[in-house]
Write a structure and sequence with these properties.
The chain is mainly α and 86 residues long. The chain is 50% helix and 0% strand. It is built from five helices and no strands. Helix 3 crosses helix 4.
Length: 86
């Protein structure tokens, strides 16, 4: 995982979740019921994520598995997830 603080501020929460969980882009896309092209666009700020309720629930489950919850997410799709380094 990239570790410089300025890089974390620009890093997608999806990328951070993938790095922390060891999921591939393909696997996370499948869990979120989307495709790798869309996930890549979310990760690279080419498209703002508009998640369905089911995708939000899946994201919540992933975060809980990491010892986190939705309140640990930044206010935008980019920025450091609180406590991610723990």
């Amino acid at each position: 995982m990239r570790t410089k603080n300025n890089e974390l501020e620009k890093m997608s929460v999806f990328y951070q979740i993938r790095e922390k969980t060891g999921l591939s882009q393909s696997k996370l896309a499948k869990l979120l019921n989307t495709n790798t092209v869309t996930l890549s666009r979310w990760e690279n700020a080419h498209r703002e994520p508009k998640l369905t309720f089911k995708q939000i629930k899946t994201l919540d489950i992933l975060l809980k598995g990491m010892g986190l919850d939705m309140s640990d997410l930044p206010d935008s799709p980019f920025g450091e997830i609180k406590k991610i380094s723990n």
